[in-house]
Amino acid sequence: MKQSENQDSGSGVHTSPWEKSFDKVISPFEEFIHRQTTSGMLLMGTAILALVLANSALASFYSDLQHMLVSIRIGSWSLEKTLHHWVNDGLMALFFFVVGLELKREILVGELANLRQAALPMIAAIGGMLVPALIYLGLNPDGDAARGWGIPMATDIAFAIGALVLLAHRVPKALITFLVALAIVDDLGAVVVIAIFYTESLVYEALWIALALLGLLVAFNLAGIRRISPYAIVAVFLWYFLLKSGVHATIAGVLGAFTVPAIPKYDPERFSRQVKHLINRFDKSYKPGKSIMTNVEMRSVVQTLENGILKVEAPLQRLEHAWHLPVAFLVIPIFALFNAGIPLHLDSLSETLSHPVTLGIGIGLIGGKFIGITLSSWLAIKLGIAQLPPDIRFTQIAGVSLLAGIGFTMAIFIAELGFASQPEYLLMAKTGILAASLLAGIGGYVWLRLVAGGK
User: Fold this and answer.
1) For residue 400, what pLDDT is reported?
2) Residue 29 pLDDT grade (very low, low, confident, very high; cuts 50, 70, 90)
3) Which of 427, 430, 334 is CA-nearest to residue 45?
4) pLDDT tens digit string along 421-430?
5) What is the 3-state secondary structure (H, E, C) of the chain?
6) What backbone phi and psi angles, to 5 degrees, belong to 6?
7) What pLDDT is recorded for position 284?
8) Global pTM value
9) Beta-strand relationship, 77-82 and 69-74
10) Domains (ranges, CATH) in the chain?
11) Can you give the C-alpha Rg of the chain in angstroms?
12) pLDDT per residue over 143-197, tens digit each?
């Protein structure tokens, strides 16, 4: 049999190529960027698949799949929703959970922890949310169409970072950091907008129960409980009662994430001492030529090491690492599959593109983000409120402001909320999001490539 492993000379140790990755230490930020980039590519493929399904002979199957009823029953209790609603109300709660974990980490130890350092992306994000909303309302000042004002506020972090990483060798790392911080503040703004402005009516009995459950999660945190299971169980009930209260249930994901402990059980010094002691025991119990499966002492040491690693990591860090992959590679693509499929009628395409809702979202995402981010950044720097990082030129900030016009996931989500009972407006909104995101991505990429070429 042909061996694919490399053998260390004289050691008798076989190393498979994939095992070499164990020697490579990457930062959480590098891992985050890599996953966002891959997620963006997968998201693009899924969105294209959804468009193909909605505009092919499979269109009726695609529609039936979205409206298929799925129920959960326990005794006399049941919860029944269409598959489309289960994706948007249920699966997307996991997406918002990861967003909440990222927000908390960034606020505690990330790019938003240092107020002076965070000032520029925070101000840029606020400008990039306000101007698109105002542009949209300028074109859709009243009626049902006005409910879409929150749609062009949102930036899709996976797509935007994916486009910027394509230029990674041409742009400074600080520019990627700036975009990540901006997009995370943007996500926080979108969450606040959804919670406050896209809640139609409230059922106060369910809301009080949800608030009590949130208080219980906070109590778990204050009491020093670091096991994940109590938080998970209470968070499920929090999701259910928020769903019944009228507040969008996905907000439970963010609220639950903010209660997850950010302090580990072991401090680094204690962990270091224990690891050195265990490695010493591991080395002493090693027997040449014997498998670890037959060595009880070695197996016990490895298991103890695993337990210790779990305790030196904060639950916040552990959950973000565990859930980022399934959310990025499963939840968001499924959301795109169920929400990006819109029928494209070439005979009425010009009418669709000229509709005030489509124009409001398109101009808001491209022009609004560009004006809002660049203008607010320029003012913040000129007034001395914030400072431009040493490695970044202002022309690159302008390029990033175009990439921020990619508004896929969160924008479609807000469109589904704002136009749930207006299918015509929803179609216009999704058309505007897809068209603007495509143009913003191409425009931002070309801008930054030209700027980099002009060095």
Assistant:
1) 92
2) low
3) 334
4) 899 999 999 9
5) CCCCCEECCCCCCEECHHHHHHHCCCCHHHHHHHHHHHHHHHHHHHHHHHHHHHCCCCHHHHHHHHCCEEEEEECCEEEEEEHHHHHHHHHHHHHHHHHHHHHHHHHHCCCCCCHHHHHHHHHHHHHHHHHHHHHHHHHCCCCHHHHHHHHHHCCCHHHHHHHHHCCCCCCCHHHHHHHHHHHHHHHHHHHHHHHHHCCCCCCHHHHHHHHHHHHHHHHHHHCCCCCHHHHHHHHHHHHHHHHHHCCCCCHHHHHHHHCCCCCCCCCHHHHHHHHHHHHHHHHHHCCCCCCHHHCHHHHHHHHHHHHHHHHHCCHHHHHHHHHHHHHHHHHHHHHHHHHCCCCCCHHHHHHHHCCHHHHHHHHHHHHHHHHHHHHHHHHHHHCCCCCCCCCCCHHHHHHHHHHCCCCHHHHHHHHHHHCCCCHHHHHHHHHHHHHHHHHHHHHHHHHHHHHHHCC
6) -105, 130
7) 80
8) 0.81
9) antiparallel
10) 26-198+248-264+313-453 (1.20.1530.10), 266-312 (no CATH)
11) 25
12) 999 999 999 998 887 778 777 777 767 788 888 888 888 988 998 899 899 988 8
Separation CA 405–CA 401 (nearest Å): 7
- Please give the Cα distance from 154 to 273 (Å, whole number): 46
